[in-house]
Amino acid sequence: MKGISKYEGIQFKEGSTTKVVDPLTIEHALQIDINGKSFTVVMQTPGDEIDLARGLLFAEDVIGTKTPVKFESHLNKNGLIERLDAIIPEDQIGDGYLSTRSLLSVSSCGICGKQSLEDLQFQEGELSSENRLLKVDVDAIFTMQKQMIESQLNFQQTGGCHGVAAFTLDGEMLGLKEDIGRHNAMDKLVGSLLRAGILRKAKIITFSGRLSYEIVSKAFRAKIPTIMAVSAPSTLAIDFAKEYGITLLAFSRNGKTTCYANCSKTSF
Fold this sequence. Notes:
Blueprint: E1 4-13, E2 16-25, E3 28-34, E4 37-44, H1 49-59, E5 70-75, E6 81-87, H2 95-98, E7 103-105, E8 136-137, H3 138-151, H4 153-158, E9 162-167, E10 173-179, H5 182-196, E11 204-207, H6 213-221, E12 226-229, H7 235-244, E13 247-253, E14 256-261, E15 266-267
Parallel strand pairs: 3-6, 4-7, 8-15, 11-12, 12-13
Antiparallel strand pairs: 1-2, 1-14, 3-4, 5-6, 9-10, 9-11, 13-14
């Protein structure tokens, strides 16, 4: 099915491990240009790209209901649309473009300021050896996850926010933040650790939602080598975690979790 790809992983459950192949939602970067100039990058699931671009340009007041637009598609080596050029008469482009506001629309509403595909690449390479973990115990991380869940006071009252917590390798919770946006919660957490001067102690993140590219990128920037999430990862999150040395655990609930990246560093 379009928009889905299968990834191998190792499932940890009740003291045993099993190799699994799971269908996961594809997260793919789509660059949208206007008359040959970069406008924004959208993190999206392949399919209906022209409708997505048209709706986004309309929402941003770049085009109106009757503005004539012609889209030119540019494919990557895998046959996916990686860039759309919206050809619009210059005299009919709306104020949303003239404001020159940088815009990045991502699958979970985060990272701002990216206007081209190249901007999504990290500049620092993979995690250095001093920032990697030799081994991480799955049962210990489940204990950390439980502590996070029990400390999510906002979620307990509203059921409407995400939570993220940072831990040392010994299981000490360094901080927990909640926000209606998962990216906001992550930024708040990292910001608080920076302010306290203890970011270097953070080795494990437990996360209440699904994992997309932006969360992995923020963890990499903070040099935090392990992420455990309650829900599903996107394909791009896994690809980046593999490339940059981050251990990624997902579907972590009811005593079960699946490792999709750098699994050699996990154990019971």
